[in-house]
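1st attempt posting a full record on here, be nice pls
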Amino acid sequence: MSRSSALLSVLLLSGALLASCESKSVPAPPSAGTGKKVDAATAGTIMGHVVLTGTPPPVETIRMNSDPACVQAGGATVKSDAVLVDASGHVANAFVYIKDGLDPSYSFDVPTEAVTLDQKACGYVPHVTGVRVGQPLKILNSDATLHNVHAMPMINQEFNHGQPQGAPPITKTFTAPEVMVRFVCNVHGWMRAYIGVMAHPFWAVTDADGAFKIDGVPPGTYTIRVWHEKFGTLEQKVTLGDKQTSDLSFSFAVK
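the predicted structure (as tokens):
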């Protein structure tokens, strides 16, 4: 038996044992509400930037020599995408969302189109994203090597599946809101991804300029939270009027 076949057998067995022994109670999907819809004629936008003040931590170097396929795909060493801060302090890969304040009588259609999480050059792509409760999450393996997809939520159901080269996509859904769900690969210990599971569509991930934009928000007073895997969380209150655009600035500080 080849090394990769033996490793796959061990991973599949461990995943099966994990599923059979899992006793965590997973909540049912939240109620869809009374069916109240957002009025597009009065909806506004919450936008802004996330920045870092102070000297950012050094970027971690990842050594992928343990798997020749990873070296061929991405190189022997790559830079981690856990901390992406440009020269002006703009922070990428921060997850921004409405934490509270939404009228519970609103209901939001769940997209049927899947969010894709790919394993490419021995990394998860994208590193940070969001998915709605009940929306399909399609997990791909675009690499010429075995990966092991291990989701490690605190509220939703944990899962752990081997995915060899050329295997079909793995499709999963989450049943409860949770920010954030961590993904790892049990074959390549450096691989990480984070997914925010949302009951509503009002979330965004900051781009390379630290910018975010959340459209279609009904008037109201909200708590906006920013999450970053290394820098923690920040919150602000914002009151949004009819057709209003609010421009926010969030600043993480390091010494």
